[in-house]
Amino acid sequence: MFLFRGGQAVEKGTYWEPDAGKKIVLTDDGSLPGDKSRGYFKLPESYLLVPVLLLGLGLSMAFPYGIGAALCALLYVLYKTLRFTCRILLREGEKAEMSGTSERNEKENKG
Questions:
Q1: What does residue 16 show for φ and ψ, rounded to 5 degrees?
Q2: CA spacing 20 to 30 A to 34: which of 56, 63, 94, 99?
Q3: Structural domain total, the chain
Q4: Which domain holds residue 13?
């Protein structure tokens, strides 16, 4: 599982909240802070090392030739797109959880 909700029991690790841009580090198994409206995803910090190094290398090569501004604009658009995608995925997961709960409640009321 990649996406998690606030209050959900999880294993130890590093969790990121894309809306606030915060990282939550759990040293032991526990639950994530907040209510179910807050979404998190699990991503170890080491996964960010290679992309950041490649980004630095690319920008150091691009800036002297004048295309650095275009790369910065492209990276900004990519960032906004990924952030929007994470928000949609978290909302869809919430809707699926809610619809599953309402269907279960209807079956219990009928039975």
A1: -115, 140
A2: 99
A3: 1
A4: 3-110
- Walk along the chain (111 residues) and give the pLDDT tens digit of each residue: 578 888 888 988 888 888 887 888 888 888 888 888 888 888 777 777 888 888 888 878 777 777 777 778 888 998 888 888 888 887 777 666 666 655 555 555 565
Q: How many CB atoms lie within 10 A of CB 31?
A: 13
CA 37 to chain centre: 13
SS3 108: helix
Quick one: three-class SS letters along 34-101? CCCCCEEEECCHHHHHHHHHHHHHHHHHHHHHCCHHHHHHHHHHHHHHHHHHHHHHHHHHHHHHHHHH
Contacts for 3 with CB less than 8 Å, ≥ 6 apart: 39, 40, 41, 89, 90, 93
